[in-house]
Amino acid sequence: MQSFNHLHFGQVSAHIKKSFDELLPDPWLREEDGKFRFRSFQKAVVNRRAEYYLKTDPVFYQSETLNHYSGGIPRKYPELRADVASTILLQVVNKFLPLLPDISYNIGIHQIRITTEDRSPGYPAPEGIHQDGFSYIGIYCVGVNNIAGGDTTLISCEEETASRTTFKLNEGDAVIFNDVNYQHYTSAIVPLLPGKGYRDVFVMTFDGEQEPA
Ligand SMILES: [Fe+2]
């Protein structure tokens, strides 16, 4: 898959939606930026035989070159709830994997709620327009509540085309794109009506393992 694919995963189950209420504040946001991100993280391995297993390593690391906002720090997060991880990995196996080369993958699953409140925007990508240093990235939107913004833009890295596409992910929508060929960004969210709002997503990173599945 050289570019990107839009998908619709259908109705989101109640236990997945509710699990976002239990997320803890991301301790790696800068103090002065406030608490607008709540997060869990899970590493897993998955192959085309629909076999997957969870890894116990809770550390997410990106270089400073890749992420000037929070790169260079081994970021440790709570693991996903086991029932949430298995539901999401089934979606990965059924929906994303058929679009990718037929190998095994190391997967990172980031369960993220971005919140906003009057006069406090929430930033899905505080690092700005970026690549994350993986082969592919999937974003699965589980729910949005009372927000404006949150538009995702993919920008081709090819000088000649430099094409870009902007879209909004609503509940049940997903996209998967090639992280080598595209930069990405998701714009800030603000409340649509006065009060609070949030955007709940799973961001999944894919890197091929060496051996074919
Ligand atoms: Fe990203």
TrEMBL record:
Under the heading InterPro entries, the entry gives:
2OG-Fe_dioxygenase
Source domain of life is Bacteria
Q: What is this protein called?
A: 2OG-Fe dioxygenase family protein
